[in-house]
Write a structure and sequence with these properties.
mainly alpha
């Protein structure tokens, strides 16, 4: 179990750091420009997603290219599609609920309830991450044997 937790931390940890920075930056900038909690919640959600999934996809492509190169195989468009399919399986269900409902709602209400934009956004991110990672990690573990062999 310790090995799995280390694997999850190596996979998701750097993406989380980037996501937190992007979320807070986008939320702060959007709120400063618009004074709209709704726009702030959406900007924070989507900026965090772009940073998070951009990192994860880059990591997967890099690892797959390395594996294929070691086996004397090229990284092709078809391989990229397989990488993308694996990500959809890993994150699809979790992401639908997270990005369309849970995270924006928390990022809208918590800053107002706490009276702190940064504190509310950060707490919203942490709470939303809990509901996101349970199905994402389960899907990742189930997909490793079948969808992550390149």
């Amino acid at each position: 179990m310790k090995a799995r937790v280390r694997e999850w931390l190596r996979r998701y940890g750097p993406a989380e750091v980037l996501s937190i920075l992007a979320t807070l930056s986008a939320a702060w900038l959007t709120f400063r420009l618009t004074r709209s909690y709704a726009a702030t919640a959406l900007a924070g959600t989507w900026a965090g997603n772009v940073a998070y999934f951009g990192y994860i996809l880059t990591l997967d492509i890099w690892q797959t290219r390395r594996q294929r190169h070691a086996a004397g195989l090229a990284y092709t468009g078809r391989t990229l599609l397989r990488n993308l399919r694996a990500l959809v399986v890993e994150f699809g269900l979790a992401e639908v609920f997270d990005s369309l409902l849970i995270r924006p709602a928390l990022m809208y209400y918590l800053p107002r309830a706490l009276g702190s934009l940064s504190g509310g956004i950060l707490l919203a991110k942490i709470l939303a991450d809990i509901t996101f990672y349970v199905p994402a990690i389960i899907s990742y573990e189930l997909s490793k044997k079948r969808l992550r062999r390149f």
